[in-house]
Specification:
Blueprint lengths: L8 E2 L8 E11 L5 E11 L10 E4 L4 E7 L2 E2 L6 E2 L3 E4 L8 E9 L9 E5 L2 E5 L19 E10 L5 E4 L2 E8 L3 E12 L6 E4 L2 E8 L5 E8 L8 H18 L7 E7 L6 E2 L4 E5 L12 H16 L8 E2 L5 H19 L2 H21 L10 E2 L8 H34 L3 E2 L1 H10 L10 H4 L5 E9 L4 E9 L14 E8 L5 E2 L1 E3 L2 E3 L1 E6 L3 E6 L7 E4 L8 E3 L4 H10 L3 H24 L8 H12 L5 H7 L5 H5 L7 H18 L1 H11 L9 H18 L4 H13 L3 H13 L5 H12 L3 H12 L6 H9 L9 H14 L1 H4 L5 H14 L3 H7 L11 H15 L6 H11 L1
Parallel strand pairs: 2-12, 18-19, 19-21, 22-24, 25-34
Antiparallel strand pairs: 1-23, 2-3, 3-9, 4-8, 5-6, 5-9, 7-8, 10-11, 11-16, 12-15, 13-16, 14-15, 17-18, 20-21, 25-26, 26-32, 27-28, 27-31, 27-33, 29-30
The chain binds ligand 7MF and zinc ion.
The site of ligand 7MF has 15 residues, from strand 20, helix 2 and helix 3.
């Protein structure tokens, strides 16, 4: 650790800024090794601050200070104080505006943290959220200081022909020594975390979008020249996003220009900088032969997400970083709605819930559990979590469910109208929603402050005489670090009833009749009585996953099979199948643990056969119904995770289904297998998805025929979806062509970084026996580098987070490998290193021997030399 113990920041300590920066004129003289930044800040005392004569403290990190001047007069060294993290000035004017001019230098090339100004191949670019602007120049680096930015970039004409920043280009010109300059002006005030600049040899594709009021917006996507043929889908996605936000939220774009730049070195997915989004190449570049269907879908979703931030994040931003979920939860909810509308609502909802239940629920149940609005942090970058994003989106979704479509729209309109141009809190958002409806959201606010996943116990009793069904719902929430006791929360429970013949039954409750109701649970326990039921109906509870809770309800395999065939709610129908599979697999896990022989219940085979027999319009949904629950989802439901038994039981089910339903899987494969390229309509996507699911079942048979099927698809595939699907089953099986296929894939794609990432991931995730040594060798592969986050995630991230079986090997070699890499990465890129620790945070879920092994590695990380506060916070809190 560093000499001083890292400081904790608390929400309760928030105070308004003592000073405001009205405007800034930045001049950046670009150079790989020594960039000069000249900043002229127009500052005034904040009229809302009650503190008089406070020192002006500007944040700055790793800056080489050249000079400071106030109102044109240079400071001597006695007139300011400098520390490793700040520049402060006492006695600044309290009554009038003043101009502070600061000059400093930075070295982008040595900046491997990828925060602030850095080099990605030959391109200079910035990442400022959350607190990266302080690595560029001294500033009031907090989101409630909103400033007008005017930025002049100066650089070599050959090295940096393209010079970009936020807003509109207002002037440009030439200088001596082959240099040129461009001035950008952003007419909207913004916090400095939304600042961006990009300089490099970039090419762009251009298009336009005409807004709802008839304004023509110019759209540009910038990439390195070799990627220019992979931008069309991103451009289409941008236009779809702009259109959708007008239709769904009445939101129009506000500048004349929207730019996206794709960079190969990026710590996360993308960034919503005003008018100049910077994206990970992974979420821009796509060509049918290089990107899978799911890549295409993610690109559209992320482009949407960043675009939607223009209103939920930029026009209205966060008061402080504790409010992060204000912009992220809402924007994720918006991008989920968008993707659902563009593709399939049923499939999108299922994919989102899968992520939430596996990853967010684990976070909520672990040592780093925190509310969607955290109360304390050491390093804010560690709080860009699944909880803030995904649970945050669920909380917004519950408001949507409680208010209904129409009032929710009224609420969002009111929120935009009330707070445009402001930096606000989560409370402001909920208040707007409350004002626009008749719904009391007082208790609901507890979702923002309480951590942990509520558990809902449901019991039902049918009374034949009264013809009533009584449903009792009881909520509870386990203690989380720092929150020993919990109160009840406001939970919307969407419910439907099915008659025994599978038809929809009427719901009669409190004198109202309908097909579907939303029960509102606000107490610890409540009872609901449904009347006029001649026969006991089957209850479909928590439809659409209407709240982020664990639902416990006794259900027989027969009842689940019934719901799988008949439920009209697409989410619950799928979930019934998942629950069936889970129950069966847990039974088999017991058998394995007790050394008993395994047998698959015909009920499951029949249920699958029944699904296959029906005709399906949405083939993607159909393929979800045929997918078994993931190993990590099963692990989340076990008291003591047994990774080997989970794997064996699940493989047994998969293989037995493949044996029993071989003919059906073959028929489906042949029916939907068309060697098509470049078709990205939902029909083609669905055909590929169902066909490839069938391929993966058939591959478990390990027959000559199945090897040939995969081999043929691999070598003849014209799109990446089919090629990857085939390679993946080859790598998973004992197919003799495995080594050769991997090698030919590498040779084919060695110049496409994003495809090589897939090649690493596929091997890292394999359940094959030799995976650990494969991973060790891949770490030494010439194409592997710790300085590229995508590569790190594709190998180290994939192995530790997506290969439960081998990462948790009994001898601890997986844990050791990860800790070694985290320690190496810590000094290169603390943010990415910290993310990699996450696989070690779940140690309480394992047996005593594994717990000991994992804790030893966490200790080793905490005690490593020069550990960053990013890594320190996660590793040390995990040990508590
Ligand atoms: C879709 O939120 C959903 C989430 C912060 C960086 C992008 O726009 C962002 C940035 C992190 C984690 C996830 C996402 C982002 C970040 C993200 C991207 C697309 N403001 Br860290
Ligand atoms: Zn975001």
């Amino acid at each position: 650790m560093q000499d001083t113990k890292p400081q904790t920041i608390y929400l309760k300590d928030y105070t308004v800024p003592e000073y405001l920066i009205e405007s800034v004129e930045l001049t950046v003289i670009l150079d790989e090794l020594k960039t000069r930044v000249v900043s002229k800040l127009t500052i005034q005392k904040n009229p809302k601050s009650k503190v008089d004569n406070a020192a002006l403290v500007l944040q700055g990190e790793g800056l080489e200070l050249v000079s400071v001047a106030m109102d044109g007069v240079a400071f001597n060294e006695a007139q300011y104080k400098q520390s490793a993290e700040s520049l402060s000035v006492d006695n600044v004017p309290q009554e009038q505006v003043f101009v502070l001019a600061i000059e400093n230098t930075i070295n982008p090339k040595s900046n491997t943290s990828l925060e602030g100004l850095y080099l990605s191949s030959t391109m200079l670019c910035t990442q400022c959220e959350a607190e990266g602007f302080r690595k560029i120049t001294y500033f009031l680096d907090r989101p409630d200081v909103m400033t007008l930015f005017k930025t002049t970039l100066i650089g070599d004409k050959d090295k940096y022909p393209v010079l970009l920043s936020n807003g509109n280009k207002v002037a440009e010109g030439e200088l001596q020594n082959n240099r040129h300059w461009v001035t950008w002006e952003d007419p909207f005030k913004k916090p400095c975390y939304l600042f961006a600049l990009v300089a490099g040899q970039l090419e762009c594709i251009e298009d336009t979008f005409t807004t709802m009021t008839g304004r023509e917006i110019s759209l540009q996507i910038f990439v390195e020249s070799h990627d220019i043929d992979k931008c069309d889908h991103a451009m289409q996605s941008l236009k779809n996003s702009m259109q959708w936000d007008e239709e769904a939220y009445g939101r129009e774009y506000d500048l004349d220009l929207y730019m996206i730049v794709a960079v190969g070195h990026f710590n996360m997915g993308a960034m919503e900088n005003k008018g100049l989004n910077v994206f990970n190449t992974k979420f821009v570049l796509a060509r049918p032969d290089t990107a899978t269907d799911s890549d295409y879908e993610h690109i559209e979703g992320v482009i949407g997400h960043e675009y939607f931030h223009n209103w939920t994040g930029n026009r209205i931003t966060c008061r402080d970083w504790f409010q992060l979920s204000l912009k992220e939860g809402f924007t994720v909810f918006r991008d989920q709605q968008f993707t659902g509308d563009q593709t399939s609502r049923a499939v999108k909802r299922i994919e989102d819930v899968k992520l939430l239940r596996v990853r967010q629920f684990a976070e909520d149940a672990g040592p780093l559990s925190h509310p969607i609005r955290p109360e304390a942090y050491i390093e804010i970058n560690n709080f860009y979590t699944l909880t803030v994003y995904e649970k945050g989106a669920e909380v917004v979704r519950m408001i949507h469910t409680l208010l209904g479509e129409e009032d929710f729209r009224k609420g969002s309109d009111l929120y935009f109208q009330r707070h445009d141009g402001q930096a606000v809190t989560c409370e402001d958002f909920v208040n707007a929603m409350e004002s626009a409806s008749d719904i009391d959201l007082g208790l609901f606010k507890r979702w923002y402050s309480q951590a942990g996943t509520p558990v809902l116990e449901a019991t039902e009793r049918y009374n034949e005489q009264d013809k009533t069904l009584t449903l009792t719902l009881k909520q509870s929430c386990a203690a989380t670090p720092g929150q020993a006791t919990k109160g009840p929360v406001h939970i919307p429970v969407k419910l439907g009833l099915l008659a025994t013949d599978g038809s929809v039954a009427n719901i009669c409750i409190d004198g109202f009749v309908s097909n579907e109701v939303i029960l509102e649970l606000i107490q610890e326990q409540q009872t609901f009585v449904f009347e006029q039921l001649d026969k006991k109906p089957v209850v479909s509870l928590l439809r659409g996953f209407s709240a982020p809770v664990v639902l416990n309800k006794q259900q027989s395999l027969e009842e689940l099979a019934f719901l799988l065939s008949h439920d009209v709610d697409t989410f619950n129908r799928w979930d019934a199948g998942q629950k069936m599979c889970s129950q069966v697999i847990f039974g088999l896990i017991d058998n394995i643990q007790q050394g008993q022989a395994l047998q698959l219940t015909p009920l499951l085979v029949d249920a699958f056969a029944n699904v296959i027999q029906q005709s399906w319009d949405d083939l993607s949904y159909f393929s979800l119904l045929l997918s078994l629950p993931a190993e990590n989802y099963l692990a989340g439901q076990m008291d003591v995770v047994d990774v080997v038994a989970i794997h064996q039981a699940r493989e047994f089910v998969k293989k037995t289904l493949a044996e029993k339903l071989q003919e059906q899987f073959k028929e489906l494969y042949q029916r939907y297998h068309k060697d098509e390229s470049g078709l990205f309509d939902s029909g083609a996507i669905g055909r590929r998805r169902i066909k490839n699911i069938c391929l993966s079942y058939l591959a478990t048979l390990e027959t000559e025929e199945s090897y040939q099927l995969a081999g043929k698809q691999f070598s003849s595939a014209k799109n990446m979806t089919d090629q990857m699907a085939a390679l993946s089953v080859i790598v998973e099986s004992k197919n003799p062509a495995k080594v050769q296929s991997l090698e030919s894939f590498y040779q084919q794609w060695k110049n496409e970084a994003l495809v090589i990432d897939k090649w690493f991931t596929l091997q890292a995730c394999s359940s094959a026996e030799d995976t650990f040594s494969t991973v060790q060798n891949l770490l030494k592969h010439p194409a592997f580098e710790l300085t590229n986050p995508n590569r790190v995630r594709s190998l180290i991230g994939a192995f530790s987070q997506a290969n439960q079986l081998h990462f948790n090997a009994e001898n601890g070699q997986g844990y050791q490998l990860l800790a070694d890499q985290v320690i190496a990465l810590n000094s290169i890129n603390p943010q990415v290193a910290s993310r990699m620790v996450s696989a070690l945070t779940q140690w309480k879920r394992f047996d005593a021997d594994r717990q000991t092994l994992i804790k030893a590695e966490l200790e080793r990380i905490v005690n490593a030399e020069n550990i960053s506060k990013d890594v320190y916070e996660i590793a040390s809190k995990s040990l508590l």
